[in-house]
Amino acid sequence: MGVFIVLEGGDGSGKTTQAKALYRRLLFRGYPALLTQEPGGTVLGERVRRIIKGHTAVTPLAWLFLFSAARAQLLKEVIHPALEQGVAVVCDRYTPSTIAYQGYGHGLELATVRQVIDATTNGFESDIVVFLDSSPDVGLTRKKGQNGDRFDSEDTEFHNRVRHGYLDLASKDSHRWMVVDAGLPIEQVADQIWERVAPLLASER
């Protein structure tokens, strides 16, 4: 089985940059690797992604089901087959995003969020979650001028709740979560992530 690596973070945290950097390093070191994202990676996932980019008015509960449907498809079509072939999968967002954004951010009952997640993933979790932690004010400033999405337009209070959600999840599962200061230089963040990921890869060889 390959290693399933998830990168998480608030908007503007540098999460996507680090996911790409990790993917490139894996290939450079000779590991078969796959880079994917949520939502995305499948026809259904890309359609959900277009809904986000289109700033469509969607209720929090509807978001929960949209993301979960896209995730179920991604697991079936992309993630599980790759892992079964021994490929290291780097995923830009996974279930923690749903808990942090729809649960903590939008205020849906966490029990409901987790129930839907469990139903669509069958309890399947990543081997590691790397959380790029940054102040929402800093992250949203970085995002200015970029093509944003529906969640970029939420207020700072929302993003503070999301960050709190991530940190709460990390504190309750510290053996699997890695919290990284996203304010550090990009190369330093990448090196810290690699130091944590490399032993997982070695154990699979």
Descriptive overview:
With about 200 residues, this protein is an alpha/beta fold. The protein has a single domain (about 5-205), classed as Rossmann fold. It is about 55% helix and about 15% strand. It contains eight helices and five strands, in the order βαβααβααβααβα. The protein has a five-stranded parallel beta sheet with strand order 2-3-1-4-5, with helices on both faces. The termini are close together. About 40% of the residues are buried. The mean pLDDT is about 95.
The spatial strand order of the largest sheet comes to: 2-3-1-4-5
The computed structural class is: alpha/beta
Strand percentage = 5-15%
Mean pLDDT: 93
Distance between the termini: 9 Å
Helix content: 55-70%
Number of domains: 1
Task: Tell me what the CATH architecture is.
Answer: 3-Layer(aba) Sandwich
Could you give the order of the helices and strands? EHEHHEHHEHHEH
What's this model, at a glance?
The chain is α/β, with parallel strands linked by helices.
Summary tags:
Rossmann fold, alpha/beta, five-stranded parallel β-sheet, 205 residues, single chain
Secondary structure layout plus pairing:
Blueprint: E1 4-9, H1 15-28, E2 33-37, H2 43-53, H3 60-84, E3 88-92, H4 95-105, H5 110-121, E4 128-133, H6 136-143, H7 156-172, E5 177-181, H8 186-204
Parallel strand pairs: 1-3, 1-4, 2-3, 4-5
